[in-house]
Amino acid sequence: MTKKFLSEHNISFEEHNINTEPQYIDYLKEKGFRSVPVIEDNDDPIINGFRPDLLRNLVTQ
Asked: One Pfam family of this protein, by short name (predicted)?
């Protein structure tokens, strides 16, 4: 859902899929996350999980 939202609003993103790139599981755990998706901006987490309310803020930036 998050990926679909970003695509529909022409927001570019780089995807790291934990199923095909399991090293990112450890990366997320080190940052304290226990669920995906996690959206970061320059390695700063800004959204965890599917949060349409917060995703809309990205559209207005």
From this structure: Glutaredoxin
Pairing of strands 38-41, 44-48: antiparallel
Q: What are phi and psi of 48, to 5 degrees?
A: -125, 125
Q: Where are the domains of the chain?
A: 1-58
Residue 41 CA, distance from chain mean position: 9
Q: What does the mean pLDDT of the chain come to? A: 90
CATH code of domain 1-58: 3.40.30.10
Dist. CA 32–CA 10, nearest whole Å: 29
Rounded mean pLDDT of 38-48?
Answer: 84
What is this structure's pTM? Answer: 0.77
